[in-house]
Design a protein that fits this description.
Blueprint: E1 2-9, E2 17-24, H1 30-45, E3 55-62, H2 65-76, E4 82-87, E5 96-103, E6 107-111, E7 114-118, E8 123-128, H3 137-153, H4 159-162, E9 163-170, H5 173-190, E10 201-206, E11 216-222, E12 231-233, E13 253-257, E14 262-269, H6 284-301, E15 309-316, H7 322-333, E16 339-343, E17 353-361
Parallel strand pairs: 3-4, 9-10, 15-16
Antiparallel strand pairs: 1-2, 2-5, 3-5, 6-7, 7-8, 8-11, 9-11, 12-13, 13-14, 14-17, 15-17
Helix pairs in contact: 1-2, 3-5, 6-7
Length: about 375
Amino acid sequence: MIVVSHAEFTTSTGIREDFFTAYGAGKDNFADEASEVLAAYDAQLARYGCSQASEILLRIHVSDVTNQYHILEKLIAGRSSFISVIEQAPVDAQRIAIEAWHWQGVRKSFEDGALKVSLENYPVLWFKKDELAASGSFDQTYEEFTALGGYLAKHNANVAEHTVRTWLYNRDVDNNYAGLVQARNKYFAEIGLTKDTHFIASTGIAGQMHDVKRLVKMDSINYPTLRHGQMQYLYVLENLSPTAIYGVSFERGTRLILGDRSHYFISGTASIDKHGEVMYCHDVARQTHRVLENIEALLQEGSGELSDIKLATIYLRDTADADIVRNIVRAKLGNDLPLVTVKAPVCRPAWLVEIECIAVNNKGNSQYKVFK
């Protein structure tokens, strides 16, 4: 059975947004399973007034990217969205799960490895680097950020002011995450981002790319024409410590304030306390409850609620924990939320679960342009 879930956000002023997840029972081979899941997802698009033309983000989680990537390439050929393929195996003996974000009535074009989405009021740049020259997680991470900075400079923009959210995927996170952290810290210091300014919302998580030499892959969403004040960085110091106290540099969450809505990008969130310590070691159920408490506090800091969440990803160290975690999440967030659960160890081995999400509500600010 293939499961396709959908959520949407609409206003009377700006564009409609649609969110999807899709996955299915395992088939005898990857090509058949991937074909069925993609076909079921595509078949549902028309039901909600969507199409491949409205597809902005298509993130594909697979179980063996090295062997599956070139099969998948043929299946997704011709799609004009920002496509990210990551080895993070779906937890129920599946080979593929997808997440998608649709924006209605926009124009799309590709340039220098980026997807440019042209809205009436905002250009939006989704950037990734297809190939890296460097080796080692430090040098590859630094190359990723340097490439993003160079690309944004061509659009009179920069990482510090216009990058809203990054996703960093790290092969063998237990051994290679330190280099990623050190390179990001170095790059941010060079561009003036410190604990006294701000960082950028991000998930840093285990994930493999089809090139076995690639240790790091970064995706990012960037708004080159944002005005001052349109990004609110979310701090809930009674729940979560600043990330800098344990040597990393990312924001727990960012609220992007538009004229008719707010987008909330909640970074990968784990069971952590205000001192930066892991809570409830070896107890995945209590860790999951704490994760949801932290996410709720972050959203409320920016006038949001758990009910505003439109898309979520659960990352697990041990797939045996999947039912425990999903039952808790579904009880809190509802059975209809587009949700994907994958095997992807978190940066600290004691963290058994991490969750990231995107939320949208109508808490905009009329001094800014609406999202259209």
